[in-house]
């Protein structure tokens, strides 16, 4: 092996960020083995981030992907992005995602596929600071509550509800996170109901088509500094009533746009 090749290989093993994509051109077993081999050869004490892009094929299971995720957790991964592309039934993400003491950022789903959030009981993720849920499906109301209740130090939450079946089995989307400081909701689902209990909130963004929807902040939010509301339809009075403390407000209610700042 040349000196240059050895140097490149040595640098690769110290890389803190890794990105892998499976498109079905080879067997998933081969892909999984190669990824595991690469991860296990990783020499940095902490894996900063791992992006897994997997085009779901028949025969791929949550156990298969759970092996990759578990290997990353063994390397103390701090950021995990799991994009699953499926043309059929929703993919239930591995229960191993509940058990990582170093994970600070987690992004699930994709706008081309479907991940099923099925959380039968509360779990604890003390280290998680940022959570992004991109067009995932939810089994029921309790799964949402159980998913978020264990994130006792969560600061940033992004929820994208653009999927046609995202909240098909959900009556009320409850966001009850006392530590939450930044919340972004993209909601183009007709007639959705969302309750937000986040007393530490400093930034709120709501975007979507809220015709027939019901949004409310169930607790006083005295620290809310900035709000960005961009909707097609009539704005909910419950939302307006929660914006009394904001210093910077961007309000876009098609075709009207209003910007206000107290700075």
TrEMBL record:
InterPro entries: FBL13/AtMIF1-like, LRR_dom_sf, LRR_FXL15/At3g58940/PEG3-like. Coiled coil: none annotated. SUPFAM superfamilies: RNI-like. Residues 77-209 form the F-box/LRR-repeat protein 15/At3g58940/PEG3-like LRR domain. PANTHER family: EMB|CAB62440.1-RELATED, F-BOX/RNI SUPERFAMILY PROTEIN-RELATED. This is F-box/FBD/LRR-repeat protein At3g26920-like. The gene is LOC104783574. It comes from the Eukaryota.
